[in-house]
């Protein structure tokens, strides 16, 4: 799975949680999940659970806390997929 595929799946996961639809329309790797997309911290937990389920990965709490941008989420998924391969 390449970065583009992971990015598209991460954006699809974020879509129902994002309050700022304009930012979502122009989402990029540097888009901040909480600040730009207006996702609250409680929903971040749901997003991490979705990432785990969809990508078949296990995200540690300390790794989840480091996810600030869409790129962070994509990189984490890519890293964990490689680590489990």
Annotation keywords:
85 residues, mainly alpha
- Number of structural domains: 1
* Main β-sheet description: none
The CATH topology corresponds to Non-ribosomal Peptide Synthetase Peptidyl Carrier Protein, Chain A
- CATH secondary-structure class: Mainly Alpha
Mean pLDDT: 95
Shape: globular
Structural class: mainly alpha
Output the number of helix runs: 5
**Low-pLDDT segments, ≥5 res:** none
Percentage beta strand: under 5%
Task: Give the full name of the CATH homologous superfamily.
Answer: ACP-like
- Count the beta strands: 0
Describe this structure in words.
With 85 residues, the chain is mainly alpha-helical. It has helices spanning 3-14, 21-25, 41-55, 61-64, 70-84. Helix content is 60%, strand content 0%. Helix 1 crosses helix 5 (70-84). It is globular and about 35 Å long.
């Amino acid at each position: 799975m390449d970065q583009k595929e992971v990015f598209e799946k991460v954006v699809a996961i974020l879509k129902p949680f994002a309050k700022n639809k304009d930012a979502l329309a122009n989402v990029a790797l540097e888009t901040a999940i909480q600040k730009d997309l207006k996702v609250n911290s409680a929903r971040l937990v749901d997003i991490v659970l979705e990432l785990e389920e969809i990508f078949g990965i296990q995200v540690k709490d300390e790794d989840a806390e480091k996810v600030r941008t869409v790129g962070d989420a994509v990189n984490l998924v890519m890293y964990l997929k490689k680590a489990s391969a």
